[in-house]
Amino acid sequence: MKSTMNVLLYMPPSLRERRRYLLFEVMCEQEIDKRDLLKEIWDSIYSLYGDVGASEIKLRLIEYHNREEGKSGVGVLKCAHDKVEEVRASLACIHSVNGARVGIRVIKISGTIKGATRLRR
Amino acid sequence: MPNFFDLNVHAYPETDAPVEELRRVAKRYGYAGIALTNHNESVKERVESNFIITGVEIRANSVLELKRKVTLHWGKVPLLVVHGGDDKLNRAAVEDSRVDILAHPCGENGEGELNHVSVRYAAANGVAIDFNLGALIHNRRGDRARILDKMRETLKLVRKYNAPMILTSNAHSIYDLRAPHEMIALAALFGMSKEEATSALCDIPQGILEKRWKKDREVELL
Questions:
Q1: Binding-site residues on chain B for chain A (CB distance < 8 A)
Q2: Complex ipTM, two decimals?
Q3: Was domain B4-221 assigned CATH 3.20.20.140?
Q4: What is the number of structural domains in chain A?
């Protein structure tokens, strides 16, 4: 019984949605909270593409952490594979998080988290 | 990798962004050069590098004042930008072949307009039409919709008359700068294709700095 449950719970790979993982870098005035950042990203997406567009993008924030005494931060986002340019535009439109000025750029795009976070040689 | 340029950045003393900081961030973002274009005066600080191009952005209230300031700065700085927005000033700027770039012809917040006659003059005189992406970053809702509409109109005319066009950030701080690929994604918002946007960030700025379109004109005149 347990084995059938497991089979039903996990979507077969052929049916899974194709996605992209984006490694991004935030340059900020002061340390920013992960939750504030995510809220700002969603605001930007809603403002640019509306509710329907936002649902198609299928955005998730996988990870975010600050570095260099809060002057910058890095994170990983997940989105639908054909919506990378839309996410880039939404990230570029963010000018402040919680009153602190920020600038975001995408460093790397990959089909797997491992690929996106692998160190460049 | 192509050479990307951002030809409209404002630095200290006009803003609180030191030249060295801007250079560091722009280099990190993958630019081959940025132009410091403070309003009405060039940056005094001398930087010994090919990365920084010193220009001036002329802001005037009347056509007469504009012409006087263009004459004053022409030949002294490698890049002459005119602060656009007003219809009459836009027209005067594109009619003057000494001007290199007409910055934000639709105004910094989309209040002005550029008509087909002006764009035709711009193509003939080699004045580049600038698309100010900073306006898209700093405005929301109705304002941004209006700006996007204006940019779409301008893009249509620029394509028709084949005028040089560039993308700039109009940055006032290091946080306003955006990496080249982000600029291309922003340009896609008003219908610019990836190829057009790439050339508006690489080839055309390079051509402006080399005065490519101006030379052609001089040869014709001779």
A1: 25, 29, 136-138, 140-141, 144, 173-179, 181-183, 185-186, 188-189
A2: 0.84
A3: yes
A4: 1
